[in-house]
Amino acid sequence: MKRRAVLKYLAATATAALGPGFSLSESLPSPSPASAPVLQGVYFNQLGFQPSRAKIATIVNPGETAFRIRNEANGKIVFKGTLTPPATDEASGDSVCQADFSALRKHGTYRIEIGNALSDPFPIRQDVYANALYLTMRSYYGQRCGCAVDLGNGYRHAACHTDGAYHASSGKAAGTTPATMAATS
After folding, report:
1. Mean pLDDT in residue range 50-67
2. Fewer Cβ atoms within 10 Å of its own Cβ: the N or the C terminal residue of the chain?
3. How far is 83 from 35, CA to CA, in rounded Å?
């Protein structure tokens, strides 16, 4: 993964204070998610949020000052807020604003809306992290070498690095150093 992408993701998880300007529960006609443009440059917790925890999204160069949270099930706007003033993210160089919707605590699936563009859907529910440990451990299994791996759904690979090699930086003398590893030291 590229440094810039990682830094942008990490910046998106940062917490910032937002001023007043929130109002709850408004019902407006819903744009069809299929016809609405996809909101680009929105970074937030990809698993979702727990109801009582902070909920902050970072938006790259939105060109707007306000945001809305739309309920995916019924299309109603359930939260309105003001974006923070634009700031330059030191890590990426992007102009970013943050949307704080921590006051939204109702379970459901939602989208961030800026102008007529919608983000990908995200859940708010208490058990949103219930599978996090399982999925993390499964990802490590998928990266194993020395044995065949089959995670299903077409993700599999044969055993690799089976010659007992050690990279020169390990300090070990046993085994052989493959040419591809030697070139990176």
Report:
1. 92
2. N
3. 24
Is the model's pLDDT at 3 over the cut of 70? no
Do strands 23-26 and 77-82 pair parallel, antiparallel, or not at all (unpaired)? antiparallel
CA 3, CA 57: separation in Å to the nearest integer?
20
CA atoms within 13 A on the CB side of 185: 12
Residues in the chain: 185
Q: Range with the lowest mean pLDDT among 59-68, 90-99, 165-174?
A: 165-174
d(CA 20, CA 13): 21
Judged by DSSP in three states, 86 sits in coil
Contact 73, 47 (CB under 8 A): no
- Number of separate helices (H) and strands (E) present in the chain: 3, 12
- Report how far apart, in Å, the C-alpha atoms of 141 and of each of 129, 131, 151, 152, 177 are: 19, 15, 8, 12, 24
Token couple for 14: 């940062």
Q: Is the pLDDT of residue 72 over 70?
A: yes
